[in-house]
Amino acid sequence: MGIKYGREYKDIVTDFVRGIEMVDGFYELLEMNADDWQELEKDEQEECLRTLADDIFYGLGNAPVMHVGAGSVRHDPNNHVLKVHDGEKLVSVIYLV
After folding, report:
1. What is the rounded CA–CA span in Å between residue 24 and residue 58?
2. pLDDT tens track, the chain, 97 positions
3. Which of 3, 11, 2 is nearest to 79 (CA)?
4. What confidence score (pLDDT) does residue 2 get?
5. Residue 18: its pLDDT value, please?
């Protein structure tokens, strides 16, 4: 089905990356542990996060909720946003329009 959006995709992904970073254990989705993540250079981390954001965005087109580390990402099509949760705490809202 896919997610509809009106903003520039690169801007959405930039905001999404910042939200995903706030989720405890987000790197587990990349099959890494905290030590593995810390060993990466900053530009490698950024590249991994952008790839992760792309993958999650694509996945949300088929399922409204995806689990990420200790949290989740939810697509709210009625409000045209993505909501990033760390556990039960809402940590970021990414506007799609």
Report:
1. 21
2. 689 999 999 999 999 999 999 999 999 999 999 999 999 999 999 999 999 999 999 999 999 999 999 999 999 999 999 999 999 999 999 999 9
3. 3
4. 84
5. 97
Looking at residue 18, its amino acid is R
Question: Is 86 exposed, middle or buried (CB count within 10 Å of its CB: 0-12, 13-18, 19+)?
Answer: buried
Burial 10-30 (b: 16+ CB within 10 A, else e): eebbebbbebbbebeebbbbb
Distance CA 56, CA 31 (A): 15
DSSP line for 18-44: HHHTTSTTGGGGGT--HHHHHHS-HHH
Q: Are strands 65-68 and 71-76 parallel, antiparallel or unpaired?
A: antiparallel
